[in-house]
Design brief:
Shape: globular
Protein name: Enoyl-CoA hydratase-related protein
InterPro entries: ClpP/crotonase-like_dom_sf, Enoyl-CoA_hyd/isom_CS, Enoyl-CoA_hydra/iso, Enoyl-CoA_hydra_C
Helix content: 40-55%
Strand order of the largest sheet: 1-2-3-5-7-10
Number of strands: 10
CATH class of the largest domain: Alpha Beta
Structural class: alpha/beta
Distance between the termini: 26 Å
Radius of gyration: 19 Å
Number of domains: 2
CATH topology of the largest domain: 2-enoyl-CoA Hydratase, Chain A, domain 1
Pfam family, one: ECH_1
CATH architecture of the largest domain: Alpha-Beta Complex
CATH superfamily of the largest domain: 2-enoyl-CoA Hydratase, Chain A, domain 1
Family: Belongs to the enoyl-CoA hydratase/isomerase family.
Strand content: 15-25%
């Protein structure tokens, strides 16, 4: 596919989706939202990990405020454009890493937080900037953030709209890790490579179980774990994993 607002490349089982409007800090336009949704939904078969990042000095500054049509119908824009994009990321058939290379603000921050794993450069920051323009956090922020850091910290982030540095975000448990800027690209590549070489079906089941845990009671979660484990136990990767363990060698997972 040819895209105008994103770049999409695949190498060694890793797909890299780069938000590519650096002149406006990768602000989310209607076209960009459609292209992200399309790319995530239609990953090539060989892809076993997806990395989402931004071009230039920022990850994403959030909604493109020059988009008058979106501003005229915020509810419709969220329902028709943001929700399909976020659902595509959450339902992606492979693990998703958000590689936050710079500022992630507003809906751009919550786009990153929708990923399975968030890795940020130490110079990056996360800003729930909505109250600066008289709006409410959206794009899943009011769902994801309180569950990650608790209500007190979530409310502070949202009410004060102050930047949260990557290191503090990691300390709070909002993201997986913050890396020194000079080690960021190499660190993300290593993590993506690890996931691309891992047991893809097991990863998918883990993501399903963790997402469901926010709604399930204990009995429902135990039943889900049993079902997912039964499915994982029928994969070629389970057979390979056990065989490799018994043979005292690294497993060579195929993703099947």
């Amino acid at each position: 596919m040819t895209y105008e607002t994103i770049q999409f490349a695949v190498a060694d089982g890793v797909a890299t989706l780069t938000l590519n409007r650096p002149q406006v800090m990768n602000a989310l336009s209607s076209q960009m939202r459609r292209e992200i949704t399309e790319a995530v939904t239609n990953l090539p078969d060989e892809v076993r990990c997806l990395v989402l990042t931004g071009a230039g000095r920022g990850f994403c500054s959030g909604q493109d405020l020059t988009d008058r049509a979106a501003a005229a119908d915020l509810e419709g824009t969220l329902r028709d454009e943001y929700e399909p994009m976020l659902r595509a990321i959450r339902a992606c058939r492979v693990p998703v890493i958000a590689a936050v290379n710079g500022v992630a603000a507003g809906a751009g921050a919550n786009l990153a937080l929708a990923a399975d794993v968030v890795i940020a450069a130490e110079s990056a920051s996360f800003i729930q900037a909505f109250t600066r323009i008289g709006l409410v956090p959206d794009a899943g922020g009011t769902f994801i953030i309180p569950r990650a850091v608790g209500a007190a910290r979530a409310l502070g982030m949202m009410l004060f709209a102050e930047p949260l540095g990557a290191r503090q975000a990691a300390d709070w448990g909002l993201i997986w890790e913050a890396l020194p800027d000079e080690a960021f690209a190499q660190g993300v590549a290593a993590r993506a490579r690890q996931l691309a070489q891992g047991p893809t079906a097991a990863y998918r089941a883990i993501r399903e179980a963790v997402q469901a845990s926010t709604q399930n009671d204990m009995d429902a979660q135990l039943a889900l774990e049993a079902r997912l484990q039964g499915e994982a136990g029928r994969t070629a990767d389970f057979i390979e994993g056990v065989t490799a363990f018994l043979e005292k060698r690294p497993a060579r997972f195929s993703g099947r």
